[in-house]
Design goal:
By secondary structure, the chain is α/β, with parallel strands linked by helices. The chain is about 40% helix and about 15% strand. It has 10 helices and 8 strands. It has helices at about 20-35, 50-60, 85-90, 100-105, 110-125, 135-140, 145-155, 185-200, 220-225, 240-250; strands spanning about 10, 40-45, 65-70, 95-100, 125-130, 165-170, 210, 230-235. The protein has an 8-stranded parallel barrel, surrounded by 6 helices. Helix 1 (about 20-35) packs parallel to helix 2 (about 50-60), helix 1 runs parallel beside helix 10 (about 240-250) and helix 5 (about 110-125) crosses helix 7 (about 145-155). The longest helix is centred in the N-terminal third of the chain and has 18 residues, at about 20-35. The chain is globular, with a radius of gyration of 17 Å. The structure holds phosphoenolpyruvate (PEP). Phosphoenolpyruvate (PEP) binds near residues 14 and 170.
Length: about 250
């Protein structure tokens, strides 16, 4: 059997941090890595767009990668306020999150648009982290698996590979709420996503599937030990260097 994919711990800072805070956080995270040696995981921080330049400079020479929280699907043009994937790559980003549920809900992003953003990310040489996940009402209605299968099919482009794409399963009701699914519930959802990926993509077995939704320093080890969980997308807890670093170290050997 092939070795499991190398885990990825990604911090989504969302719309938090002025220059001073963001810089201090990035320096603190890079400092933990330097002082304690690299964790057996890929580590990524996704600051707000305003901080990408400075945080990128602070992370130079460190194994901590830089990512953005969104990109536009067009390569350039008349899209006031938007940012093209190539602009992110130009700033030193290696990853971009697309289809986060806060953008799907707050900006009306459809699966088709998310897929277009992922294609734009690939064209710019970025790894797309494609977010999917059911709402609480969908879970209560017994539709959680069907919803993620549908979102996966429509949000992940056909040219996705284990190198250019990461899937993040983030139940909407678990984001920022302090509530998490049980280990068994996470296992069911990740197994379903793994099956879907393996059926559709030649290297689907090697694609990383992150869990996201109220991961913190206390619950990370348990969640990261669940089958087919290849890392975490962390919101709130990624704003603390100590908590984020504890999560990075919680990945099982
Ligand atoms: C997220 O925003 O992707 C997220 C998982 O947030 P939190 O960890 O705060 O639930």
């Amino acid at each position: 059997m092939a070795a499991p994919p190398r885990p990825l711990i990604a911090g989504n800072w969302k719309m938090n941090g002025l220059r001073k805070d963001g810089l201090a956080l990035a320096i603190a995270i890079a400092g933990r890595v330097r002082a304690q040696g690299p964790a057996p995981v890929d580590i990524l921080v996704c600051p707000p767009a305003t901080l990408l330049g400075e945080v990128g400079k602070a992370l130079e020479g460190s194994p901590v990668a830089l990512g953005a929280q969104d990109c536009h699907e067009a390569a350039k043009g008349a899209h006031t306020g938007d940012i093209a994937a190539a602009m992110l790559a130009d700033l030193g980003c290696a990853y971009v999150i697309v289809g986060h549920s806060e953008r799907r809900a707050g900006h009306g992003e459809t699966d088709a648009r998310v897929a277009a953003k992922a294609r734009a990310a690939h064209a710019a040489g970025l790894v797309a982290i494609v977010c999917i996940g059911e709402t609480e009402a969908e879970r209560d209605a017994g539709q959680a698996e069907a919803v993620v299968t549908r979102q996966l099919a429509a949000s992940v482009p056909g040219a996705a590979t284990a190198v250019n794409t990461v899937v993040a399963y983030e139940p909407v009701w678990a984001i920022g709420t302090g509530r998490t699914p049980s280990d068994a519930e996470i296992a069911v959802m990740h197994a379903r996503i793994r099956d879907d990926l393996a059926q559709r993509f030649a290297d689907g077995a090697a694609m990383r599937i992150l869990y996201g939704g109220s991961v913190n320093a206390a619950n990370a080890a348990q969640i990261l030990a669940v089958a087919n969980v290849n890392g975490a997308l962390v919101g709130g807890a990624s704003l603390s260097a100590d908590a984020f670093w504890t999560i990075c170290r919680a990945v099982p050997d």
